[in-house]
Amino acid sequence: MIVTILLAAGRSVRMGQTKQLMPFADSTILEQTIDRYLASNTEKILVVLGYQADEIKRTIADKPVRIITNIAYENGMSTSIIAALKLLDIETEAIMIGLGDQPLIDSRTIDKLIDEYHRQNKGIIIPLYHKKRGHPIIMNIKYKKELLEMTGDAGAREIIHRHQEDTLEVPVTDEGVCVDIDTPDSYQSAVKRWNETTG
Length: 199
Description:
- The chain is an alpha/beta fold.
- 33% of the residues lie in helices and 22% in strands.
- The protein has seven helices and ten strands.
- The N and C termini lie far apart (36 Å).
């Protein structure tokens, strides 16, 4: 079983407001992102909240996902991944680490990464858009111990760097894997892209 861990615990400091709750399409940034994963072949989704968790939780309460509250979110992204790892089912074969502010990602891209994980003999799968690495990233559960030892905001980058021989970059045509919304400018740009592709 591949379990998705969606990271949505941050304070959105550069945005100046809680970006998870900002309007996007007919809902919010986080809701749209969750919907992309729900439409994919991922088998289970854990959404990790932190800053303003109660308010965000009410917004996504009707989604068929498991909500985790990371009280240590201010200590970096690693704490959110660790909080989710501690709650994984024993049947979990791999995790897919996604970002809660990527509403432009295509569900078919997520499925492609899952397919490549099953097809190839690699423990780490990373999407590559125009030679730029993006999210989500799939990691075999054999890396759980190393992930649990992470600190700060580096995420899994150091682990991936240590295991380049076990890493597969999957070229994709989906810009959404590299579009995360961190600033007012990136928000306006993402909204514009959405309107262009759906309008």
